[in-house]
Amino acid sequence: MADLIERNLETDGFRYWGITMYRTTYKSDADWAKFLDRFIGSVRTELESDDGLDMLDSFRPVVMEDARRFDGATPDQIRDAFKEWARVACETEQGVPYKRAEWAYSARYRLCILVDEEALQSVLDIPTEDLEAYNTTGFVILINGRWPPEWDPEELAAGGGPDDGHEPVYGCTLDEIGWMKVRYGEAQTGASSRMTDDGDWSVEYRRPPAIGFHF
User: Which domain of life is it from (predicted)?
Assistant: First the structure.
């Protein structure tokens, strides 16, 4: 996994890796701090198990916190904010234009992470003694920044638009909704090593409430 992350960076000519994360729950700063400690700790654990701790030197996770703007935000709203950030960040961080960055093997400017209250609590509910064990219940939400909605939300609310017959998620009954729940321990390393294009997204996609990234 660490070798794949390094290879993606070299192929793209990038200096840094890491998936940008958006906080959409603001009930408790203490809980958020504990979540971040566990989440970032999981990256170290994954890299260490793969003899890849040297990749921490280029790991630059960005955490977006803005209660006024992001409290209770939906995946679609976060996607819009992420795309605004990515168009500028790829130039300032890597010196790469967005048209190139959005198709890069590295997923830094293509995917982002959303942490809502449900996701946060799913990670905090893990017993301390089990934090380094394989876990299938703690998750975060991974958003495909290149996924364009194929419907009008107002049409869906009125009963129109496409329908794959699934239970609605934020009003969408399609199978592919542009985001998925993924195991928190693999969210950074898995996305940065294995999610190199839209084909990888299609292979790994699991419609909520299923949790993906069982590498």
Answer: Eukaryota
Report residue 39: phi and psi, to 5°. -65, -50
Alpha-carbon distance 70 to 78, whole Å? 8
Length of the chain: 215
Per the structure block, which two tokens stand in for 201? 């997204």
Mutual angle of helices 187-194 and 29-49, in 10-degree steps = 50
**Residue 177 host element (H or E):** none
The C-alpha atoms of residue 154 and residue 62 are separated, in whole angstroms, by 33
The answer to whether 177 and 143 have CB atoms below 8 angstroms apart is no
Exposed e or buried b per residue across 19-30, where buried means at least 16 C-beta atoms within 10 angstroms of its C-beta: bbbbbbbbeeee
Q: Are 141 and 113 in contact (CB under 8 A)?
A: yes
Model pLDDT for residues 56-80, shown as the tens digit of each residue: 999 999 999 999 999 999 999 999 9
Q: How far apart are the first and last CA of the chain?
A: 10
Whether the CB-CB separation of 40 and 61 falls below 8 Å is answered with yes
